[in-house]
Amino acid sequence: MTQYHQEEDMIEDIAGGEFERTPVPQSKLKSWKSFLGMYAGEHAAGTEFMIGPLFLTAGVSAFDLIVGLLLGNLLAVLSWRFLTAEIAVKNRLTLYFQLEKICGKNLVTGYNLANGILFCFLAGSMITVSATAVGIPFDMPMPKLSDTMPNGITWVIIVILIGAVISLIAARGYDTVSKAANWMSPIIVLAFLACGVVALNQLGVSSLSQFWDIWGEGSDPFPGQIKYTFWHVLIWSWFANAAMHIGMSDLSVFRFAKKASSGWTTAAGMYVGHYMAWIAAALLYAVYLKSPEAMTFMSNGEAPPVAPGPLAYNAIGVFGIIAVVLAGWTTANPTIYRAGLAFQAIIPKVSTFWVTIIAGTVATIAGLFPAFAMQLLGFVALYGFILAPFGAIIVFEHFFHKKFGIIKNYAEQANIKFNKSVLLAWAISFGLFYFISVQFDVFLSFVTLPAWLLCGVLFLVFSKQFQKKI
């Protein structure tokens, strides 16, 4: 056994058996049922209580919402099945170790840090969601749509306690995260369904046409929000998880799958979570918008607050509080787990447990600031746009390295720590399309796919130009 492999085994032992730097062995592979529960739990979760109402603040029409989500989520499932899961079962490596083989240790360290921090911010927004439910019995003031800072000591204490519990669950590893999701997801799905039914009753809906009329032809967006059309809904819902599917982050999850067909289980998350749950949560907000409190906000030219806890409590009482807390957990748990893996790649000799606790601490601090949750549509679009092009590096190398005559895993093969082809490809694609988005006021999700494709093509071109024979 070489010294390199001895070091790898030593790191694996310290890491606690999560196979961060070795392929997952056959004995540890999991059936599609493990992924079904995890995806249903993760995507019928805390973000759904925020995103559904935020669509209403963007003035969507009935057709835009219902048909746009139907098609956008289908594209997301296809991306997971035929890109992420396909590559994951071939290599059985985490995203971070796979990128290290291609990019080199020094370059991928910067990516891992950015990736981990962005995941922490997303998890933090879910801690915020859970806190809006826990705060109800304490009569805690809820954050407003425009709030950025903590609004009181009660808020701070609740967020810290929730963050500590979530971090400990995530730190126990993939098995614990998966079991937690399997246990919680049926409860959350039932709660979303119940919320939707109760909200329809509160709105006096008794026919499909009345249901359609809730959104009708759409409306003007609320103050501080942009108008969403059909294409906004379709493209945004496709790329809401861009970092996970075309960005390849879920290589870290599907490396445990027995077959690539496990990728179809993401449909449970998309159509139970990103379809039924988003619409159910939007219905809750539609009920609230008819309340005197919401009308007062609107008459003053302000956007009514989006606080998932009170919205669910108004519909189904204490069960709503429990559902929102669990929903926040089932998103934050795997997100903090992913962030921990990103940090693990930077400091591989520190155990998975402790790097995940670090990630959970960062997420908890982020959760103190409501802006991450209240601006979730924009934040999700931004982090997908930043991270997705790195997935193109893996995808284009995997499928086209032979055709283009480039060396696979070049940084590992050439024993280099910095692959300039990767940096140039990402920087040019990111810089060009971010400039287009800002300069011409183009919705950021609209340029995510062009940036992803350009990054992959440029990587092949630059690799052909700069790679040396080994």
What does this structure look like?
By secondary structure, the chain is mostly helical. It has one domain (32-385): Hydantoin permease. The chain has 21 helices and no strands. The chain has helices at residues 3-15, 32-43, 46-57, 62-91, 95-103, 105-134, 153-171, 174-202, 208-213, 230-239, 251-254, 266-289, 292-299, 308-316, 318-346, 352-367, 371-374, 376-404, 410-414, 420-439, 448-466. The longest helix is centred in the first third of the chain and has 30 residues, at 62-91. Mean pLDDT is 86; it is low at 1-17. GO terms for molecular function: cytosine transmembrane transporter activity. InterPro entries: CodB (IPR030191). Keywords: Membrane, Transmembrane, Transmembrane helix.
Average pLDDT level: 86
CATH topology: Hydantoin permease
**Backbone structural class:** mainly alpha
For the record, the count of structural domains works out to: 1
Radius of gyration: 22 Å
CATH superfamily: Hydantoin permease
Beginning-to-end CA distance, first to last residue: 23 Å
CATH architecture: Orthogonal Bundle
Helix/strand order, N-terminal first:
HHHHHHHHHHHHHHHHHHHHH
- Name of the CATH first level: Mainly Alpha
User: What is the number of E strands?
Assistant: 0
General shape: globular
Number of helices: 21
Binned strand content: under 5%
Low-confidence residue ranges: 1-17
User: Which bin fits the share of residues in helices?
Assistant: over 70%
Major sheet attributes: none
InterPro entries: CodB
Transmembrane segments: 65-89, 110-133, 153-171, 183-208, 228-247, 268-291, 311-332, 353-373, 379-400, 421-437, 443-462
Keywords: Membrane, Transmembrane, Transmembrane helix
GO molecular function: cytosine transmembrane transporter activity
